[in-house]
């Protein structure tokens, strides 16, 4: 798969029938382990334990699979242009509100495009304007997100948006679905609190399913994140826009 995409934007397909429905989904959430208390072992015991821990760490490091290319340093965003395989994780960010004001919020997410599933033309048959989709195949792109930080309480900040790409790397048309599709269900982050303290729960997770269309003879084979969910003062400040993070087989 190419490390970079020369994105030729296709016009997003936003016309769907009234019978199409709003995406629904499953929820999972992470938990944080409380820090362990400092012990009162003797110096000799602590030295021996430290040696055992180092040996255990080295053994684990040699056998653990390298599935997270974004984990070079905690809190470091995955670099623009990073090419990942499906299931590999990136650390990304979004924001909302005007920077420098009380309403400004910034969030970071561990995210991974986990699978790209081909549907059939029949999946679109229930749409009012189904004839418009003749010859096109829907592809369902599933993305897992975990909210890793949130600068202040908020339930309105969105996860990063993704694009689908055809075999030649050009963008696939995104299908905006108002309602449920059995083949493509999403979930939400957990929330807590109320009023001004109503907020997404840091550490909670969600699944997103996005529908893209491929013309006859083509296929959606990869996905990307171009930072379009992060507002910048200048267009050029978004280094992901022309050099996105990508996922493919």
Describe the secondary-structure layout.
Layout: E1 27-29, H1 43-63, E2 83-85, E3 90-96, E4 105-118, E5 136-150, E6 163-166, E7 173-175, E8 191-192, E9 199-200, E10 204-215, E11 220-225, E12 245-248
Parallel strand pairs: 2-12
Antiparallel strand pairs: 1-10, 3-4, 4-5, 5-10, 6-11, 7-10, 8-9, 11-12
How would you characterize the overall build of this protein?
- With 249 residues, the protein is mainly β.
- It has a single domain (40-248), classed as Immunoglobulin-like (Sandwich), CATH 2.60.40.1240.
- Helix content is 8%, strand content 30%.
- It is built from one helix and twelve strands, in the order βαβββββββββββ.
- The strands form three sheets. Strands 1, 3, 4, 5, 7 and 10 form a six-stranded antiparallel β-sheet that branches.
- A hairpin with a 6-residue loop joins strand 8 and strand 9.
- The protein is globular, with a radius of gyration of 21 Å.
- Mean pLDDT is 77; it is low at 1-73.
- Residues 35-77 are annotated as: Disordered.
- This is Lipoprotein.
- It comes from Arthrobacter alpinus.
């Amino acid at each position: 798969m190419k490390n970079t995409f020369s994105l030729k934007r296709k016009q997003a397909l936003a016309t769907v029938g009234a019978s199409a429905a709003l995406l629904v989904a499953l929820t999972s959430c992470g938990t944080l382990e409380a820090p362990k208390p400092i012990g009162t072992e003797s110096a000799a015991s602590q030295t021996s334990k430290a040696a055992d821990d180092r040996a255990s760490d080295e053994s684990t490091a040699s056998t653990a699979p390298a599935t997270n290319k974004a984990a070079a340093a905690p809190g470091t965003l995955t670099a623009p242009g990073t090419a990942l395989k499906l299931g590999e994780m990136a650390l990304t960010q979004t924001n909302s509100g005007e920077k420098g004001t009380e309403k400004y919020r910034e969030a970071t997410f561990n995210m991974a495009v986990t699978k790209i599933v081909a549907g059939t033309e029949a999946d679109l048959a229930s749409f009012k304007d189904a004839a418009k989709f003749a010859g096109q195949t829907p592809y369902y792109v599933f993305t897992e997100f975990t909210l890793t930080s949130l600068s202040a309480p908020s339930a309105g900040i969105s996860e990063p948006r993704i694009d689908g790409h055809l075999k030649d790397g050009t963008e696939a048309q995104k299908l905006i679905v108002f309602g449920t599709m059995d083949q493509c269900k999403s979930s939400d982050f957990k929330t807590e609190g109320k009023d001004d303290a109503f907020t997404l729960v840091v550490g909670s997770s969600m699944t997103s399913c996005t529908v893209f269309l491929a013309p006859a003879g083509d296929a959606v084979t990869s996905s990307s994140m171009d930072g379009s969910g992060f507002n910048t003062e200048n267009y050029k400040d978004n280094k992901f826009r022309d050099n996105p993070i990508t996922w493919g087989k």
